[in-house]
Write a structure and sequence with these properties.
Elements (H helix, E strand, L loop, with lengths): L17 H52 L6 E2 L2 E2 L5 H15 L3 E5 L4 E6 L5 E5 L4 E3 L13
Antiparallel strand pairs: 1-2, 3-4, 4-5, 5-6
Helix pairs in contact: 1-2
């Protein structure tokens, strides 16, 4: 009756095979990569929001400077914000943008016009000007063009 009493030699162990272990490592790597990408996008959005908020404050300061001096020229110094002339306002705003967002602020002003911009991540510029426009710059804000839109 050995014919019906066949035992199968099955070795059941609690460990993982090498293939299973590699599959788990690959899945963990993919999930980690997706997490890092999401964190990077969130950081870029936060930095862009900071730039927009700070440049909105620059617009308020520009109006204040214009009201007190009848000109926008004191807003900028050397193609950047006049942090020496207004350290408690423009200096703090520029410092906040450059240190926390790693963006460079460009500022150009003449008597009756100004434009201020900062690079956003991953590309493009956020710009504010004396016409009241504040948004993604379509035109090059520079020493000859003081309009962002």
């Amino acid at each position: 009756m050995e014919l019906f009493n066949i035992r199968k030699n099955i070795n059941i162990s609690g460990g993982l095979t090498l293939i299973e272990l590699l599959v788990v490592i690959v899945i963990i790597g993919i999930l980690t990569t997706m997490g890092f990408a999401a964190v990077a996008r969130a950081r870029d959005k936060a930095n862009n929001s900071r730039i927009q908020a700070e440049l909105s404050q620059v617009r308020v300061q520009a109006v204040s400077i214009r009201n007190s001096t009848d000109s926008f020229t004191d807003l900028c110094a050397g193609n950047t914000l006049n942090d020496a002339g207004y350290p408690d306002t423009l200096g703090l705003l520029e410092s906040d943008i450059t240190t926390k967002s790693s963006a460079v602020v460009d500022c150009y002003a003449i008597d009756d016009s100004y434009c201020v911009r900062a690079r956003m991540a991953p590309s493009g510029y956020y710009c504010a000007d004396s016409t009241g426009y504040a948004g993604i710059s379509r035109l090059d804000c520079n020493g000859t063009n003081y309009i962002c839109e």
